[in-house]
Amino acid sequence: MASGRVDLDGNPIKPITICMIGAGGFIGSHLCEKLMSETPHKVLAVDVYSDKIKHLLEPSSLPWADRIHFHRINIKNDSRLEGLIRMADLTINLAAICTPADYNTRPLDTIYSNFIDALPVVKYCSENGKRLIHFSTCEVYGKTIGCFFPKDSPLRQDPAYYVLNEDTSPCIFGPVEKQRWSYACAKQLIERLIYAEGAENGLEFTIVRPFNWIGPRMDFIPGIDGPSEGVPRVLACFSNNLLRREPLKLVDGGQSQRTFVYIKDAIEAVLLMIENPARANGHIFNVGNPNNEVTVRQLAEMMTEVYAKVAGESPIDTPTVDVSSKEFYGEGYDDSDKRIPDMTIINRQLGWNPKTSLWDLLESTLTYQHRTYAEAIKKATSKPVAS
Ligand SMILES: NC(=O)c1ccc[n+]([C@@H]2O[C@H](COP(=O)([O-])OP(=O)(O)OC[C@H]3O[C@@H](n4cnc5c(N)ncnc54)[C@H](O)[C@@H]3O)[C@@H](O)[C@H]2O)c1
Ligand SMILES: O=c1ccn([C@@H]2O[C@H](COP(=O)(O)OP(=O)(O)O[C@H]3OC[C@@H](O)[C@H](O)[C@H]3O)[C@@H](O)[C@H]2O)c(=O)[nH]1
Prior knowledge:
The strands form five sheets. This protein has a seven-stranded parallel β-sheet with strand order 3-2-1-4-5-7-12, sandwiched between helices. A two-stranded parallel sheet has the order 6-15. It has one domain: Rossmann fold (3-Layer(aba) Sandwich). By secondary structure, it is of the alpha/beta class. It is 38% helix and 15% strand. It binds nicotinamide-adenine-dinucleotide and uridine-5'-diphosphate-xylopyranose (UDX).
């Protein structure tokens, strides 16, 4: 497994120690899995939760048991953080509040989590001469230029006005009272701070801008492994509706567009960044799949079709229902209109391309959702309600 592995320039890859903050989340769990099963690297896994990586931590007879150690730490207030960053060769920061339902209901937590709490991580990396891979977001681009043209303008069809490029696209945010942009703004400011640490103090950094990575273990199913009233991201919302045989809720008509990339494809890109520092340092990378674009309505229709196939159940008579964003998310919600990543830079630096079609990634993800949750949902919904 470990021997004979070489980087993109043919040099042998030396085992390193990685301090991964937010290792217990969706992306972290897949990255830990990849690092344990395919590389010789060690992981100091930092998070407040460990449920999603439990299968990698126990039992102690696992072949990688001595290469992954979990540290239950809240990075807001724990003096052990600097020690862990010093012990590692590389820090990867995934920790954040990053669910749209939180942007306008917990705006302060969102800003603190995405900016203030990330500050010591950047500082410790810079002061100790350690490399940093920081997770930002495609939301830093905000709205596309195209959305400001009249609906029937042919300019809307011109990629120059909607394809998002790391080095040339502007970042266009909405008003302060629409607090999605506070998340975007906090992420953008930490990017700028990291860039400045690189420019002034020589911090070796890579910034990742994920474009809707989806797959197994994303978020939670309300009432099963998360709060009943919780609102996860769209994959888990729609999965929950399908599992419960309820209509999928289309916010403001489901007209927003997204490109979805399979988590396993995206993790390949992160591994290339980890193992090719000379090609990744100093860069910001879009990581997404421009070929998998759909409107949210089309996503709902495809998920309904795929779920019927994997669960062997016919769809319900009314598979979707429209809801207003105010009803669904509360006052002050705003949305990103369209997100197509330009892949030129990641292609040039790391030769990475996504592989999995939207249909295929939904098929494997919904198979997982069905296997993991269908029984639990049946039990939960058949329980008599206490009077
Ligand atoms: N999944 C995507 O498509 C996507 C898109 C854009 C950006 N991102 C970014 O990627 C990163 C990871 O996203 P994810 O989808 O895995 O989210 P996630 O919520 O599943 O994972 C984040 C993890 O960070 C942990 N965390 C948060 N605050 C912490 C703290 N103070 N101390 C310790 N741990 C803390 C959480 O417990 C959680 O396990 C985030 O920065 C997010 O903004 C993800
Ligand atoms: O049940 C639902 C849930 C969501 N939606 C819509 O589906 C779209 C996608 O919603 P998601 O919850 O997946 O989140 P978004 O794509 O807006 O943001 C996502 O990508 C950028 C990251 O930084 C964010 O952390 C991530 O959540 C939005 O237009 C939302 O309004 C529905 O129509 N119905």
